[in-house]
Specification:
about 210 residues, about 30% helix, single chain, Alpha-Beta Plaits, Ribosomal Protein S5, domain 2, elongated, about 35% strand, six-stranded antiparallel sheet, alpha+beta
C-alpha cells in the first residue's frame, strides 16, 4: 500500500477539453468532502468534477467513485481503477473537466479520465504506508531522558506533554513497535487511552 504526503496536479487538453487531475491526501471521509468542496470553489466554472477515493479504516477500506454527471461508468470508475491498481490509500483523486465543445463519446471519456488519473499518479511522490498509533504515558522526570532516546529509536514522537508532579505524555509511533513500548514501560502506559492516532494527518507516516 502507498500514500502521498502532499497534493499533486497535472493537466492536459484532449479535443479542446481541459482535464485537470488532482491527487490529495485524506485520512477520512470528512477530509474527502472538504477537499471536494475546495475543488468546487477553485474550479467554479468546471463542467464536471469526477472523483474516486480509497480510505483505510480500522474496519477495512472505504472506496467510492462518482461520475459527476458524465455518462455512467465513464469517469469515476476509470479514476478508481488507477487508485486500486496502484494500491493507493487515504487518497482522493479528482479529475476536473472543462468541456471544449467536442463530444468524446463513452470510450473517449473513459480513456481521457483514466489517462488523466494515471498521469497525476505518475507525477506524485508515493511512499509506503505505515500505520501509527497513539499512546498515553505517565513518567517521572528521572525517566524522561532515557525514554526520549528510546522513543527516537522506535521512530516515535511526542505530540503532547504536561509537566506536573510527573510528566504526562501523548506519543505516536508505528503500530509495529507498540508491543515493545508497552513491554518496556508497562507501568507508565495507560491502556484505556490506547488506540489509533487520528488527531492529525500524521497518523500515517510515509517512509522513503
Amino acid at each position: 500500500m502507498q500514500c502521498i504526503r502532499t497534493q499533486y496536479s497535472s493537466e492536459e487538453s484532449i479535443k479542446k477539453s481541459r482535464f485537470i487531475g488532482v491527487l490529495s491526501p485524506c485520512i477520512n471521509e470528512l477530509e474527502v468532502a472538504n477537499n471536494i468542496k475546495n475543488l468546487q470553489l477553485a474550479y467554479p466554472d468546471a463542467s464536471h468534477i469526477a472523483f474516486a477515493y480509497r480510505i483505510k479504516t480500522d474496519n477495512g477500506f472505504i472506496s467510492r467513485f462518482n461520475d459527476a454527471g458524465e455518462p455512467s461508468g465513464t469517469a469515476g470508475k476509470p479514476i478508481f481503477q488507477h487508485l486500486e491498481g496502484k494500491d493507493l490509500i487515504n487518497i482522493l483523486l479528482a479529475v476536473i473537466r472543462y468541456f471544449g465543445g467536442v463530444k468524446l463519446g463513452a470510450g473517449g471519456l473513459t480513456r481521457a479520465y483514466g489517462n488523466t488519473a494515471k498521469r497525476v499518479i505518475e507525477a506524485a511522490g508515493l511512499y509506503p504506508y505505515i500505520e501509527r498509533v497513539e499512546q498515553h504515558l505517565t513518567l517521572t522526570y528521572k525517566e524522561m531522558p532515557a525514554f526520549e532516546y528510546f522513543l527516537k529509536k522506535l521512530d516515535g514522537a511526542i505530540v503532547k506533554q504536561n509537566f506536573a508532579e510527573q510528566i504526562h505524555l501523548s506519543i505516536q509511533l508505528p503500530k509495529q513497535h507498540l508491543t515493545l513500548l508497552t513491554e518496556t514501560y508497562p507501568v507508565a502506559c495507560h491502556e484505556d487511552f490506547l488506540g489509533p492516532f487520528e488527531n492529525t494527518f500524521v497518523r500515517y507516516e510515509h517512509k522513503d
